[in-house]
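Section 4.2 – Deliverable D4.2 (structural model, holo form)

The reporting period included a commitment to supply a predicted holo structure for the target in complex with calcium ion. Inputs used:
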Amino acid sequence: MRILIVEDEESLARNIQRLLQDEKYHAECALDGNSGLELALTEEYDLIILDVMLPGKDGFEIIRQLRREGLDVPVIMLTARNQVEDKVRGLDEGADDYLTKPFAVPELLARVRSLLRRKSEVSASLMELGDLAIDTAAKLARYREQTIVLTPKEYSILEFLFYNKNRVVSRLSIAEHVWGDQMDLFTMTNFVDVHIKNLRKKLGPGARYIQTVRGLGYMLKEAE
Ligand code: CA
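Output (structure tokens):
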């Protein structure tokens, strides 16, 4: 887990860094807004601890720019005491949490752990392509806000297509993935077509993401 600390009070920044390292996180510091933003945009972090008052770019500008660039890395903002408007503004700009200075170390660590856990739960169980999504924990498909119930085989095919997004998968490899070597290849590949047909019917408008690639197989792809 990589964590970036953007904080201009060097002793505080180093303290947080040391504490996170004690907890086995990989932590880096940026001591002003410009270098913080540059690191956040060029390196990959699992979480950012972001002070509001910074030389160069302030914390609000940084988070605004990160969200504008489409980066959804969790951000905890460090706000000054009694600055209620700072908290509100930080959350409005896309911060996930805030902590008021001065704060107790166990509290910071608890927030860090909870945000990282939330992030891994979401990213581990949800795979999305446009309006179509699958929940790999619940074994369900979703189109927009609507849940689509699939049979285990249909779900297994769709999940396999998701894992191979934007790649053509042959009927044979789908069959092997879903049925293993339980039956002969001819039967299996015909079964694939039948299941894809049923799957498309259930997905309704979401079926547009499953493309038939003639002579080769199927591909899950963003529709043009
Ligand atoms: Ca500061």
